[in-house]
Design brief:
single chain; about 350 residues; alpha/beta; D-Maltodextrin-Binding Protein, domain 2
Amino acid sequence: MKFSAFCTGVLIFVTLAANSRAETLVVNSYGGPYERIIRERIITPFEAAFGIDVVYDAVGSAAQDYAKIKATNGRPGFDVVVMTASQSLEGCREGLLMALSPKNVPNLAHLSPAMASVAGPCGAVHEVQYLSLLYRKDKLADPPTSWAALADERLKGKIILPTFQNTMAAYLVEILSVANGGDLLDNVEPGFEAMAALAKRSIGFEQSSSIMENYIKDGQVWAMPFWNGRAQLLVDSGLPVDYVLPKEGSIPLMATLNVPKNAENRRAATKFVNFFLEKASQESWVTGYKVGSARTDIDVPADIRAKQITTEADLKALHLPDLAGVAARLSAWGERWERDVVAAAN
């Protein structure tokens, strides 16, 4: 009897221990510097705070991740995914993403309404970048101040452009449209005309941002459009480069945290999203990855604040397009890009 009771006690203890093991959360995002920084600044502190083990899945672009969510009806094998506001809106509209609100993610209440609304009810904006003008300081003595600098005679054969598969392309069309008297959606004719002119002066097109940056690293390219967070990482690496927010303004890239509708660990997922939006987490992320934040009450060094979007006032330098409207036009814009812009380069 005593032995039986002992065995029963051990069995109960082992069962309780197994049941009390840490939850597991699968987070899908990017590799490279992003992975190193998110592990150090967000994931490790989150695991320590909640006892939840995070499995990091650095596979796929935002578009590829959303395609996987769509193909699996909202059960892609990861619980939290980093995408953009465009995928957030599409996924919400198609019922493939979990709705997020201050009820299940309390820190959403601390985000700028103007920035948060861009991503819709299924996306939590955890960082803000903008399309900047990146240039070589050792080649251009005077810092450019305008997008028109790309048309400077000194830069003929010294610029590279994104393919239309890179979000930068559509954004650049819109920016140049506004800079030349058009608008963000219905009158983008000036943007395509400006892009065709730039294509004639470029050395070509690349889809991947990581490949584009290689051209400016080795000096083949002296100036190009580039996301400002990644541009800052190049500055920090010691390269003779810098970047500016041109006087005509730019368009933000709102990066979002999303939870697929049928993710296995949705409760842990919302905890992670909320943790990422904590004031201290946002401060750590902004200073580590050198991006902006939709949380405007953060405290960050002046040199970082000067180049990032961290206040409502900073938004005035940005154009906020109707992403649903952009999505409806992308197919036609893509065809025109090939017909007018790529053809001009040839």
